[in-house]
């Protein structure tokens, strides 16, 4: 690389290729060594078995000179085979113990290497302090270990806010969880608050009533309470159920499953006024300002669905339409 002439980018690429080739050569050398070791082990096994049978045969020949019966011959042969197998088993056991000891030593060396690597510090002052410690020579070991632990980790002089940090992420998650629980507790507290809802039972003319209900209650729960108070005064409601009633607020037909809390939080608007005020009051400001929203609130209407189907072509039912949370009413109208 000293004689290479070219751009820095090409020089870096050439250096990368050289390192890659060297790594491949090392891998090939390791693979060749492994194959050679396997071949040697295989030859050793073959020699071991051949030597085993040769030794048994030689011992058998030396111990069976002359005329010997077949049973004595077999017994002698089995005894020699067992003795030889026991010797081989002991030798293999010693070899396995040696291999285990070598593996343990290699594992200890790897752990020691990892420990040394992990004890390195990114702080530039560590080298100077190490030199001072070597010069002193009498510093206690505990002090040296505490100094090492103190300098482990990132360099405190460098901005590392862009790097992943487990402690910072855990702190952020803990704070986020606390805020979520606090917000949920506040929401549940608001939902349990009671408010007065003013409405009119509409059968062609208005009959005003009031009902107290929790802010977290649904429109269906409100209609159930309203129906309980209206049944004794209106004969047509005595056999009616909640599903046969409709609640119209600011010329919008509100679904039964919506809660009053939904309208309060979103500051929903209707065609003729706000949906987040459920009492009745007029705009009493002395000066009108076109940039300020009017503060008028009208009583909602409770209507039988059958009456609406018969009179939906007549005012005021002709203005009513289903509530759509995606639809925005930028200007109130009453005509």
Automatic annotation (TrEMBL):
Pfam families: XAP5 (PF04921)
Keyword terms: Coiled coil
Domain FAM50A/XAP5 C-terminal residues, every copy: 193-333
Biological process per Gene Ontology, one example term: chromatin organization
Key word Coiled coil present: yes
Ranges of biased composition (kind: Basic and acidic residues): 164-176
GO cellular component: intercellular bridge; midbody; nucleoplasm
Disordered: annotated segments: 109-176
Superkingdom field: Eukaryota
Coiled-coil ranges from the UniProt annotation: 14-41
Annotated transmembrane regions: none
UniProt keyword DNA damage present: no
PANTHER family: PROTEIN FAM50B, XAP-5 PROTEIN-RELATED
Name the record gives this protein: Family with sequence similarity 50 member B
């Amino acid at each position: 690389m000293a004689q290479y002439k070219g751009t820095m980018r090409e020089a870096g690429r050439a250096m990368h290729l050289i390192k890659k080739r060297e790594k491949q050569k090392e891998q090939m050398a390791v693979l060749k060594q492994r194959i050679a070791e396997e071949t040697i082990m295989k030859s050793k096994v073959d020699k071991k078995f051949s030597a085993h049978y040769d030794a048994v045969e030689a011992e058998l020949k030396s111990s069976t000179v002359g005329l010997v019966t077949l049973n004595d011959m077999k017994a002698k042969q089995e005894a020699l085979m067992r003795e030889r197998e026991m010797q081989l088993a002991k030798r293999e056991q010693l070899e396995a113990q040696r291999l285990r000891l070598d593996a343990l030593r290699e594992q200890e060396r790897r752990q020691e290497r990892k420990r040394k690597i992990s004890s390195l510090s990114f702080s530039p002052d560590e080298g100077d302090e190490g030199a001072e410690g070597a010069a002193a020579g009498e510093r206690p070991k505990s002090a040296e270990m505490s100094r090492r632990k103190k300098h482990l980790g990132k360099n405190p002089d460098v901005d590392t806010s862009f790097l992943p940090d487990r402690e910072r992420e855990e702190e952020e998650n803990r704070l986020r969880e606390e805020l979520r629980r606090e917000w949920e507790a506040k929401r549940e507290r608001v939902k349990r608050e009671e408010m007065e809802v003013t409405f009119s039972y509409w059968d062609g003319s208005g009959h005003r009533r009031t009902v107290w209900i929790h802010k977290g209650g649904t429109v269906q729960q409100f209609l159930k309470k309203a129906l309980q108070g209206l049944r004794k005064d209106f004969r047509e409601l005595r056999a009616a159920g909640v599903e046969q009633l409709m609640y119209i607020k600011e010329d919008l037909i509100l679904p039964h499953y919506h809660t009053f809390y939904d309208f309060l939080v979103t500051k929903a608007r209707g065609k003729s006024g706000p949906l987040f005020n459920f009492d009745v009051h007029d705009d009493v400001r002395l000066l009108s300002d076109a940039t300020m929203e009017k503060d008028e609130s009208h009583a909602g209407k409770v209507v039988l669905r059958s009456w609406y189907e018969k009179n939906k072509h007549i005012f005021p039912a002709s203005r009513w339409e289903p509530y759509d949370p995606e639809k925005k009413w930028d200007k109130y109208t009453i005509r």
